[in-house]
TrEMBL record:
Belongs to the phosphofructokinase type A (PFKA) family. One of its GO terms (molecular function) is 6-phosphofructokinase activity. Pfam families: PFK. Residues 4-300 form the Phosphofructokinase domain. Its cofactor is Mg(2+). InterPro entries: ATP_PFK, PFKA, Phosphofructokinase_dom, PKF_sf. This is Pyrophosphate--fructose 6-phosphate 1-phosphotransferase. GO terms for biological process: fructose 6-phosphate metabolic process.
Length: 363
């Protein structure tokens, strides 16, 4: 038995924990590593040299990441490469696009009479994978954002005399999970954001300016959190590209700040937090670290068992328990913020805060 582990997409603060769990889960089975994202699978960059144990508690990704628009020829090449190396089981770490990719590999292998078994390991800070309560990687990013935006709110209060409006941009192409997490303020209720903009709501400029004008009149300052995927027509960033192979650098916060400044005659600043939310090591959620390792370990154990599961992802429930979920139910689907939490008013997010609180562990 020979098993292989790889990753696609971007790192999370805890993705190396999933690798550590997978290594433990496979036990004494022969283990190979595709080092370099989807390109490594297509190009056959596979090694049997394991990571140094110190790498497995760091941020970043020892397996590396990356994105690629996969073709039918790529799928054939991957199946051929794995067969040539004697690989009988493939574990792939990633998000909903990764699960679609893994499902396609499994289907192509089956069509060609190859007995390859495949198991997905969920990973994304965006929390947009269906059939899980929360995604490994999200809780640490949420903890970082909740802490950081609270600090930025305190800073903004001090500087409101020269900076009336501050708009803070967080990641989230299709969904507002991270933006809502950035509004978490149970640890310091005096410093909640005043407004949150997410992709689940169509952006309306007039409503936005009216909200800012009202908040400034009431409080003399306004702090706004916005997802990078809001109003992509204004940034011309490829946030809606399905293969995600183009670099996304954000910018909606700065555009909205400039617009509000000109329209309302106020001073405004746009901030883009960027990759810090997925690579911060100081604020890793203990729950997230534990669960990331657990899903990796379970995937390794399923592949180690000759009669074990295949064409599944390791699902995760509210209590951190795992169960198999069919890849066909996950791949390519987006888990949007539920209707009950789709609001622009952070003061209406009490139930969301109750859901999030155990994951971020700030109070």
């Amino acid at each position: 038995m020979t098993l292989l582990i790889a990753q696609t997409g971007a790192p999370t603060p805890v993705v190396n924990r999933s690798l550590a769990g997978f290594i433990e889960g496979v036990g004494d089975a022969e283990l190979l590593f595709a080092h370099g994202g989807p390109d490594a699978l297509v190009e056959g960059r596979i090694t049997d040299v394991p990571p140094d144990g110190r790498e497995l508690v760091r941020t970043g990704s020892w397996l590396r990441g990356g994105r690629r628009s996969i073709t039918d020829d790529d799928l054939d090449t991957i199946v051929d490469t794995l067969a040539a190396r004697g690989v009988t089981g493939l574990g792939l770490i990633g998000g909903n696009g990764t699960m679609a990719f893994l499902s396609a590999i499994g289907q192509r292998a089956s069509q060609r009479g190859n007995g390859l078994r495949v198991v997905g390991i969920p990973k994304t800070i965006d929390n947009d994978i269906v059939r899980v309560d929360h995604t490994p990687g999200f809780a640490s990013a949420a903890r970082y954002l909740a802490t950081t935006v609270t600090d930025m709110a305190r800073d903004h209060e001090a500087m409101a005399g020269v900076e009336t409006l501050r708009i803070v941009e967080v990641m989230g192409r299709d969904t507002g999970w991270l933006a809502l997490a950035a509004c978490y303020h149970e640890h310091d209720e005096d410093y909640a954001p005043d407004l949150v903009l997410t992709p689940e709501h169509a952006f309306d400029r007039d409503d936005f300016l009216a909200d800012i004008d009202r908040i400034v009149r009431e409080r003399r300052r306004a702090l706004v959190v916005v997802s990078e995927g809001v109003a992509p027509e204004l940034t011309r960033q490829p946030v809606k590209a399905r293969n995600h192979t183009q670099l996304i650098q954000g910018g909606i916060a700065r555009i909205l700040a400039e617009d509000a400044s000109a329209a309302l005659n106020i001073s405004a600043r746009g901030e883009v937090i960027g990759t810090a939310q997925r690579c911060n090591s100081a604020l890793v959620s203990p729950v997230d670290a534990r669960e990331a390792r657990r899903v990796g370990e379970e995937a390794g154990a399923w592949l180690r068992d000759p009669e074990g599961l295949t064409n599944v992802m390791v699902g995760l429930d509210r209590d951190g328990e795992v169960a198999p979920v069919a890849l066909s139910d996950v791949g390519g689907h987006v888990r949007y913020v539920p209707q009950e939490w789709q609001t622009n008013d952070p003061s209406l997010l009490k139930s969301f805060h109750s859901w999030l609180s155990p994951l971020v562990a700030l109070v």
